[in-house]
Each structure stands twice: as C-alpha cells, then as structure tokens.
Design a protein that fits this description.
The chain has 207 residues and is of the alpha/beta class. The chain has nine helices and nine strands. The radius of gyration is 18 Å and the shape is globular.
Length: 207
Amino acid sequence: MQLIKRRGTLVVVSAPSGAGKTTLCHEVRTLVPDLYYSVSYTTRSPRHDETNGTDFFFVTEGAFTAMRARDEFAEWAEVHGHLYGTSRGAIEERITGGHDVLLEIDWQGARQVRALFPDLLGMFILPPSIAELARRLQGRGKDTPETIARRLSGAREEISHVLEFEYIIVNEHFEEALADLMAVVRGARVSRAQQAVRFASLIDEFR
C-alpha cells in the first residue's frame, strides 16, 4: 500500500499560570512519538536549571529585534520586560516534513499563530476552580502574595478567551488530563483531512 506523506499538525496549548500546562506538555512529549516541541526565543537570562536550545533559545535583544525585523517569528510578545518569540520557519519545516509540533503559548500568541496557520489545533487547559488555582500558585512557594494576586488576575483574562480554542481540558486529576491531551494529539493524526491524503490510493481502490 502506497502512503503519501502527510502534513503535520500544529498543536497549540494555552492556560493560565498554575493550571499545569507545562507539566502536561512535558509528559505528552515523552509518551507520544514524533511530537516536536517548539522551543521559543527569549531575551531574558537563563535560570539555573534551564538549557539553551532545550528550554529556550537565549538571545540578545539586538538579535531578537533583527529576527523580528526579518519577519522570522510566527508570534512574539513582551512579558515582564523580556521579549519572547516563536520561530515561524521551524514550525513550517516540521509540519511540512510530516511532523506534529507542540507549542505552549498564551491566548494572544495563539491568535497570532492562527493567522499564519489557520488549521492549527488549539487546546486550553483549565484549573478546576479559581480557589484551586490559587492553592497551586501558593503551593509552589516561588511567588510573593503580590505576584500571586497578579497571576490570578491574569488568569481571569486568559480564561475569558477559552472559547477561542477547539478543545478544553480541565486539569483536576493529572492522569485524566494527560490522557485527554494525548487523545487529542493522536486523534488529529487519524482525522479525515489527514487520512484522505495519506491513504488516497487505498481509498481510490474502493471507488
């Protein structure tokens, strides 16, 4: 049976801080084969546990600005005085090569990316309640009360855009949320649009 190489799917995952998005995305990357993680560019300094090229591409503000001027970003934003951006070329290269791409960004970035990749698959991770989100943020022990209050206020803004995404996953029980995320990624690979191209010759045999 002759297979035609499919075009990969761009999977965009958004969530308010503390909803568990990063942990979920890390786990799904280890469990689903051939899922490429899009590494963002940033002008901030690396933290002690971060590796250049794995967690972020750490670049100078001048280098970032030059990339932006060349229209190399699918999306970019300034957050807390630092610049962040997603490589447009890296995404296109991967999905053209038939690989799925996982991208973690906020709703504003997702909206920018969708303008360039309208067939992306968007997922939003919700906490089970605002009280639980506050408890998780406090439990991390990394933020001041002022920072937590700011993150909770930001969460309300983030969640107000939840209906812009194709799928909504409530992360109350981690294993269930992970299973849902994996199901969506795997399901996209056997969608009608994907399989109609990949198995075109097989389908034609039955016509």
